[in-house]
Amino acid sequence: MDYKFGGQWCLERKITNGCFGEIFKGKNQYTQEEVAIKLEPVASKANQLLQEAKTLKRLDNALGFPKVRWYGYKGGFNVLILDLLGPNLQDLFNSLNKSLSLKSVLMIADQLLSRIQALHSYHYLHRDIKPENILIGRDNFTNLIYLIDFGLSKKFKDSTKKHIKYKEGKGFTGNQRFSSSNSLLGIEQSRRDDLEAIGYVLIYFVKGFLPWENSYNGENGQKKNPLVTSKIQVSIESLCKDCHPAFGLYMNYVKSLAFSTKPDYAYVIRIFRDAFISSDFEYDHAFEWKHMKIFLNNTKSLSPVKTINISESDEIVKDN
User: Fold this and answer.
1) Which end of the chain has fewer CB atoms at under 10 Å, N or C?
2) Is 4-85+297-310 assigned to CATH 3.40.50.1980?
């Protein structure tokens, strides 16, 4: 069986399982360029790859987002082909024994907030911010932070640029560990929720843990009252204990935002840049992983492709 898509992209080895499909390493048969190939069963009710492809195409190759090489379907699978990136920050964090310098966390904050500002400028929410969805580049771009996985992304403004309405009683979307408190309570997500999730990610990198981790119930399972209660009851002061004051300042700001308020991105970026300057750090992009012998090809768990069954015909799905 020749696992080929779009007439040029070939499957090589499996990288990992996603929530609703599988991710493979692939290659352009003509240029030998390596790519990531995401497969999702057409029968999947989630149909996340189409949403991801639409979101990334809207971003128009913005800095720090993977480029869509091809999207379509073949046999029983939706197929999305993207840039192949390096490892995610959770794996890097684990490799570093869950220890990142304040300097590195502040540099991550600077890039990550720029990414979410870019995404929001196209009227999309991410809704699944977590370390596993933040990757570094490959080869000479290991100092570049990428935001990935837009299967749960959603537009917060319609074609008339009118903001979506505030709602309660919504089903949970995202990951419990880093999601906003409001999302766990069933409140419709908006820009403030992405920013709150980023805050939790940054504090996790500073401290190595979050106060509610003992109540955590998996990535995308139903919420449990202990986690909801724990997250709501933790004060910002307690959450940011032993952190640089910038993190408390940031969390107080994002938690104060009203549902439809546009965040002041310049302000939140400046919070962390001021912390960087006051700490006398040099912005040299020298992260801890710079000299590590890491799996930069993001292929630490490769396995044969024979586990899937794909028919011979493929078809491009156009973005209407």
Assistant:
1) C
2) no
Residues belonging to the active site? 128
Cβ atoms of 177 and 199 closer than 8 Å: no
Task: Of 100, 136, 290, 115, give the one whose Cα is nearest residue 209.
Answer: 100
Question: Quick one: tokens of 136?
Answer: 């570094």
Of 155, 56, 46, the C-alpha closest to 115 is: 56
CA–CA separation, 168 and 183 (whole Å): 9
Phi-psi region of 151 (alpha: psi -120 to 50; beta: other; left: phi over 0): alpha
Facing residues of 145 across strands?
A: 136
Domain formed by 89-291, architecture = Orthogonal Bundle (1.10)
> Which runs of consecutive H residues, i.e. helices, occur in the chain?
48-59, 89-95, 102-121, 181-184, 191-207, 225-233, 236-239, 245-256, 265-278
CA distance 17 to 142: 23
pLDDT in tens, the chain (320 residues): 458 999 999 999 999 887 778 999 999 999 999 999 999 999 887 789 999 999 999 998 899 999 999 999 898 999 999 999 999 999 999 999 999 999 999 999 999 999 999 999 999 999 999 999 999 999 999 999 999 999 999 999 988 999 999 999 999 988 999 999 999 999 999 999 999 999 999 999 999 999 998 765 555 444 456 777 889 899 999 999 999 999 999 999 999 999 999 999 999 999 999 999 999 999 999 999 987 775 544 444 434 444 444 444 455 444 43
Supply the pTM of this predicted model. 0.90
Q: What are the structural domain ranges in the chain?
A: 4-85+297-310, 89-291
